[in-house]
């Protein structure tokens, strides 16, 4: 609570710098007014009203510029120093208002560069020496003790300047760290959106392609083979439910990130779900052979998802562009240091019409690159299309 009060007080002082300068300079001005009669009685005999007015006038010339010492510290110090020098040239005795020189010097030392601070300190010392030479009977003894007082005020200003710069650097560093943190959060959010976009693309592209193929088959067989049309409609229904379930899971992740409680959804598919994927594709009209060679290894979930999506995207493309009578092969080989995927079909290959606006191959390459792998996709020389992917084992771990 105390820290908060002091923080608000500092903020108010920064917004009303001139008011603070007036408050800090007012005690010196009040002392000048109070001591004017005593100074005129002791040093400007005979005492009288004109002498008092002269003291007050000189004091005003020295003290009033202090109201702007925070905004224009060098200019204020120059005005006060010139006024004090004119006072010395006119042989006007030292008055309480001459302390304004030290106040202005402190403002320069606490707010300006080291060059200006040193210049202000030297000028103040020179003014002190000139005053001692004219009005002090023992300069050798009085000047060192008075000089220590001036140097102490100068050092206090330098310390305050150093401390303020240090605090400003800390504030700047904290603001920069906050900006970097926000930037990292935006980058992470963008990466998460890209990941969700890839997931949605794979889910929608695969399942919609299966549904389109089944719907075309049902429309063709609805009059001649009602039973086959019924099975196709059932496959459409099952595929639609699966697509909705996967999209609900992805939307659940977004809702969970937003802070609202998400429902429990099925885990992300992995290598173990490849059998179900092959059966679904086969039932959709693309007979597919699935073979696993080598010793299966335990893989991180993210890497398993990447393998699943690559196979799914390759089979989706074969289903869409392979043409009637096409067949596909999926080979998963576990070698010593990586997993090799090969998805091929004997469909139209290079003769298939090129899709517009598709991102399937890009998504496959991005998924493989996340784990240090590569994807090669090209038509086969004898017809058909082949996708090859190599992903290092356990690269994510």
TrEMBL record:
Q: What class of enzyme is it?
A: transferase
For this protein, the parts annotated as crossing the membrane are 22-41, 53-70, 76-109, 116-136, 142-160
Q: Which reaction does it catalyse?
A: ATP + protein L-histidine = ADP + protein N-phospho-L-histidine
Gene3D superfamilies xref list? 1.20.5.1930, Histidine kinase-like ATPase, C-terminal domain
Which InterPro entries has this protein been placed in? DUF7134, HATPase_C_sf, HATPase_dom, His_kinase_dom, Sensor_HK_TwoCompSys, Sig_transdc_His_kin_sub3_dim/P
GO molecular function terms noted in the UniProt entry: ATP binding; phosphorelay sensor kinase activity; protein dimerization activity
One GO CC annotation: membrane
Where does the Histidine kinase domain lie?
203-395
The record's EC number reads 2.7.13.3
Query: Organism's domain of life?
Result: Bacteria
Keyword Amino-acid biosynthesis tagged: no
Q: Does the keyword Transferase apply?
A: yes
Going by the UniProt record, its keywords in alphabetical order are: ATP-binding, Coiled coil, Kinase, Membrane, Nucleotide-binding, Phosphoprotein, Transferase, Transmembrane, Transmembrane helix, Two-component regulatory system
Coiled-coil region(s): 167-194
- Protein name per UniProt: histidine kinase
Source organism: Microbispora oryzae
Source organism phylogeny: Bacteria, Bacillati, Actinomycetota, Actinomycetes, Streptosporangiales
């Amino acid at each position: 609570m105390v820290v908060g009060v002091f923080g608000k007080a500092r903020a108010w002082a920064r917004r009303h710098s001139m008011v603070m300068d007036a408050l800090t300079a007012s005690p010196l001005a009040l002392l000048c007014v109070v001591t004017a009669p005593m100074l005129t009685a002791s040093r400007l005999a005979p005492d009288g009203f004109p002498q008092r007015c002269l003291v007050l006038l000189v004091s005003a010339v020295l003290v009033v510029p202090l109201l702007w010492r925070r905004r224009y510290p060098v200019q204020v110090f120059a005005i006060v120093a010139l006024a004090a020098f004119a006072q010395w040239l006119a042989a006007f005795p030292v008055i309480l208002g001459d302390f304004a020189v030290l106040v202005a010097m402190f403002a320069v030392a606490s707010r300006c560069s080291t060059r200006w601070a040193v210049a202000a300190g030297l000028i103040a010392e020179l003014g002190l020496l000139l005053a001692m030479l004219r009005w002090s009977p023992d300069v050798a003894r009085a000047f060192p003790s008075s000089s220590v007082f001036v140097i102490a005020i100068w050092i206090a200003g330098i310390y305050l300047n150093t401390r303020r710069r240090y605090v400003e650097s800390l504030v700047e560093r904290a603001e920069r760290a906050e900006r970097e943190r926000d930037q990292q959060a935006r980058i992470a959010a963008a990466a998460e959106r890209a990941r969700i976009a890839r997931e949605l693309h794979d889910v929608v592209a695969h399942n919609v392609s299966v549904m389109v193929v089944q719907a075309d088959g049902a429309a063709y067989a609805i009059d001649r083979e009602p039973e086959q049309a019924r099975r196709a409609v059932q496959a459409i229904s099952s595929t639609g439910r699966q697509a909705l379930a996967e999209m609900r899971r992805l939307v659940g992740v977004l809702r969970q990130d937003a802070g609202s409680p998400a429902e429990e959804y099925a885990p992300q598919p992995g290598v173990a779900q490849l059998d179900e994927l092959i059966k679904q594709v086969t039932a959709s009209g693309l007979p597919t052979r699935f073979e696993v060679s080598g010793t299966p290894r335990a893989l991180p979930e993210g890497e398993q998802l990447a393998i699943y999506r690559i196979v799914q995207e390759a089979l989706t493309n074969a289903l869409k562009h392979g043409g009637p009578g096409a067949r596909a092969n999926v080979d998963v080989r576990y070698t010593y240091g990586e997993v090799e995927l090969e998805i091929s079909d004997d469909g139209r290959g290079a003769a298939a019409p090129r899709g517009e606006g598709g991102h399937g191959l890009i998504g496959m390459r991005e998924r493989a690159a996340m784990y240090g792998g590569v994807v090669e996709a090209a038509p086969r020389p004898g017809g058909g299309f082949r996708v090859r992917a190599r992903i290092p084992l356990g690269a994510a771990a």
